[in-house]
Amino acid sequence: xxxxxxxxxxxxxxxxxxxxxxxxxxxxxxxxxxxxxxxxxxxxxxxxxxxxxxxxxxxxxxxxxxxxxxxxxxxxxxxxxxxxxxxxxxxxxxxxxxxxxxxxxxxxxxxxxxxxxxxxxxxxxxxxxxxxxxxxxxxxxxxxxxxxxxxxxxxxxxxxxxxxxxxxxxxxxxxxxxxxxxxxxx
Length: 186
Hints:
About 35% of the residues lie in helices and about 10% in strands. By secondary structure, it is an alpha+beta fold.
């Protein structure tokens, strides 16, 4: 980023916004049946109304920062963060203590869907490929699919990192250290 001139940075930001910050179309990932209207609506509330200037407004009983908007499908963003992160971000300024608590509780209580067993994933990969496919192709697909899955909830990770006991663990975990002792969780 630092080796780009101002015009190149603006062009880079425009390309990034277009590719990672636009809600291009609604589909199964975001359409939900509204409780009020019983119609399918975007859970991210796109398309958003255009705004000539940024403002602080009351929405659903709390203050919310509403950014200037000239594109109804563009998410709120911070140019600096978007350029450095080079991926989708939903940038929303903190407007109250309640906003922070709601955000933390939403993610701390978010459940994770367990991923398939490796044997099931491998069977699927083998069925998808021709019999004469090199083993390296199937193994590569298995590895790629395994890193895309989340096997632990955020709460579980924190417990494991801090060393707190768990009532139940998704997967058996062995913590290896450079010391002479080791502990087993799960």
